[in-house]
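Sequence in, structure out.
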Amino acid sequence: METKFIKNLDLQRNGVATEVTIMRKIEHGKDDDNKMQYELWFIRNDELDAIDRTRLLEILQKSARVKDFQELYFTMAEVTLGNGMNALDYFHQYVKILYPSGKIMRPKEGRSAVTQRSTYT
């Protein structure tokens, strides 16, 4: 199955790629070189057990049937897993964010990326 949500990213910027599933991609403006910067919400596929990999595959297959027209984050919000839980609620435990700065953190309300350093006067 081919999907735009599975990517290999150099998360640690050390030349080693890790397979991830991209949940969201949020634009945060352009850097000094006029290159678009993104906040990437992702799940590391190597952190999932066999059951969760199967669950994620089923969601990706559903998304592929509708041509991946929306971010996986929103597709998950519409899916109920076999255990009765909402997919987005369940998989949230695995989600991390790669900020344009290269920092990786768990999602937390009140936190977002910045494209330039703030100055305090």
